[in-house]
Structures are given as structure tokens and as C-alpha cells.
Write a structure and sequence with these properties.
mainly alpha; Hydantoin permease; globular; binds 4-fluoro-L-phenylalanine
Length: about 425
Amino acid sequence: MAKNQNWNSSLGFILASAGSAIGLGAIWKFPYIAGQYGGGAFLLEFVLFTLIIGLPLLMTEFSIGQTGSTYSTAIFGKLTTNKITNGIGYLGNITAFILYSFYSVIGGWIIIFIGYYLLRSVGLVKEDIGFFPYMTASPWLSLLGQFLFIAMTGHIVSSGIENGIEKASKMMMPLLLLLFLIIVVRSLTLDGAMAGVKYFLVPRFEDLSIEGTLYAMGQSFFALSLGTTGMITYASYTKQETNIFSSAGWIVMMNLLVSVLAGLAIFPAASALGIKAEAGPGLLFIVLPQLFSKLTFGTGFYILFLILFLFAALTSSISLLELNLSNVIKGRENKRRSAALWLSLAVFIAGIPAALSFGVLNKVKFGAGTIFDNMDFMVTNIMMPLGVLLTTLFAGYAMKPEQLERVIPKGFHFWYALIRYVLPVVIIIVFISQLIS
Ligand code: PFF
């Protein structure tokens, strides 16, 4: 997407931002973190954070993007004439770069899984439920997957993201939802599914913890692509008449829907199959193959699911790459290809330790766990909330209210009071309680 170009339509913008939001966060990450932090209690916190903080923040990022209409390391300074505020843009870019480097590891797993199930369906490899540990233990497979994922993302971004993605999203997203509905029904009808449903939907307040709360807040930002300037970048490509207000509402609702569907697919099946909800990052990759094997044409459906899942992950990774790239090329479109190539190479190198964290480097543990866990913790629980906090303070205190009122005409005063007084306080409280505990 060229800096001086716009989305073809408002729908294009909504689909692209929904594509950025809905990805590994809702489908892969949400269920496994909910599994580690108490199921229902986590779901409740996540929904509250998404509606009370996520939605107004998404509107905030959209209004900064639409009003400022330039790349994200210059937009803050442009809106206030105070160049120091551009630091928020730099922080967002660093956050996105690190995020992309470990995001691509999981994206790579999907590609390797697709390859494996394709080979299996034509009888070239034997039936084997234990493929997940085999894949993650193999440095070559992990790195190959990561490389392919980054190469695909780079290819799409270097050839411009409007047309193909807009068209493909219109078809792929509804199909993904449909397939989710099918697997949710199958999951719910397994013997022993009820325990999982209860675990996921009924909050047990003794499961609430400060750490879980921080994760729930981080997850609500992660899933809406907040705090990286990704949404600011996409909104900077909108025409002034695009209604960002309703766009934000749609994106939040779709994102919540997909998260809940992912939970309803995974937890009932996990309890029926005797898989622990706390299984960690592998949860989805371990539960779903077994669930699909219980469906007629299961392997075919599973491959279709993996392809749609890959698509969802790619529409998020392209937003990560695009936001870094737009700041490198600064509108010089002739530099797009070479910038995409060099950035992709840098991300791949930065992501190698994360890719090896599940295999050869799995003994290297400190802080939050493996190298992968630490990168994720730093980005999701520290850098993104910090980015979000600074962005809110920026909109609430550095911008003029008239600049914002133009883009958010309805309920402006409520929203403005929220971003000035409520959100910063909530984010700071969650942060500080984590430090103290
Ligand atoms: N929202 C994406 C997901 O949930 O998978 C992750 C993400 C993409 C975060 C783009 C931040 C971003 F700028």
C-alpha cells in the first residue's frame, strides 16, 4: 500500500484491519493462555478489557492515523509539532519487529503442518499423532517453516497489499468462521465435552490472579494489534470520509467472536480427549488434529482449516511488516521491494532463537521461561501496554480535542473522558500491581 494511495473502499480498510487483528492471537494464543490462567476467569477479564479498554483505544489509534495521515515514526510529531512524541512511533516499530520475529515461528508451524498433512493424505508418511513434538524438536523444520512464512509475507507486502488481500479476505474470513462453527459443533458433541465448556465459560473467582490479569490485558491489546502503531498505519491510508467509529466496533466484535469460537472448539475437545488445558503453545496443534480425525473427511477438513488459519496469520503478519516498511521507505515506493527483502531477512535472523526455543534451545530458561516465552512476555505484557499507555496519553493530553472530535462525532465527550482519565489509570494500576507482586 503506497503512502500516497488509499484503500479502495471503506470495506477494504475494515477487512484489512480485521485481518490484522484476527490472527494467531485469537485462534492460537487466546485458548492456550486462557488454559493457563483459569479458563472462565480469564475469558471474563479478556472480554472486559477488550470492550472497556480495547475498543476506545482502537478508536484512538484510528483517529491518530486518519488525522495524521503519514508513517508512524513521524505522525505523532506532525500532530503536535513536538518531535519528541515521535518516540512513541519508534517504540511501536521496535515492538512490531520483535513481535513479527516470534510470530513467524508459529506461522511457520502452520505451513509445516499443511505440508505434513498433505503428504499424509497421499500416503507418503504414516499416520502419527505425535508430529507436533517431532516438528518443534527439529531445528530444520522449525526454521524452514519460519523462513517460508516470512517469505510469503514479504512477497505479498512487496507486491502491494490492497487488491489481492481485499478480495481474498472477503472469501476466506467467512469460510474460516463457517469451518469454526463445524468444529465447535463436533467438539461440543464429544463425550466428556461438558467439563471443558464449564472450564471455559464459567468464571471461578479463585482463579483470578494479578499475573492472569496482566496477561488478559496484554492479550486484549495483542489481539487488536494495539500499541505497535499497526492500526495507526492502516488508518493513515483511509480517506477522510471513512467512518472509523463503526469500523472499530466491527473489528472488536469479530475478534471477540473468533476468540470465543476458538475456545469453544478447543476446551471441550481437550477435556473429552484428556488433554490438559495448560498444555501451553502447542495446545491447538495437539487438540485439533485429534478433533478433526473424528470428523468424516477429517484430514481434508483439517487441511482446509490450516490453510484458512495460515491466511488469518498472514493478514496479521503483513500488517506487521507493512508498518516497519512504511517507516523505512517513507513514501518512496520504488524502494518497497528491496526494503521488504532486507526487513524480512533481518526478522528471520532475529527470530532464530525463538524458533529453536521449542527444540535445541528448550533448556535455556530464565524470567518468563524459554527465549520464545521471554520475547512474548516482553512484547505482550510490557512493550504493547507501554505503547498503548503512551498513545492514550498522547491523544488525551497532547492532541487538541478538536482534532479528535472531527473523526469521532458521536459520544465524543464520553470517549475523551475515558482516554484521558480512565484508561491510563487502569493500565498503570495493572502494571504496578504486577511489579509489586
Ligand atoms: N493481532 C494479531 C493477532 O492477534 O494475531 C497480532 C498483531 C498484528 C499484533 C499486528 C500487532 C500488530 F501490529
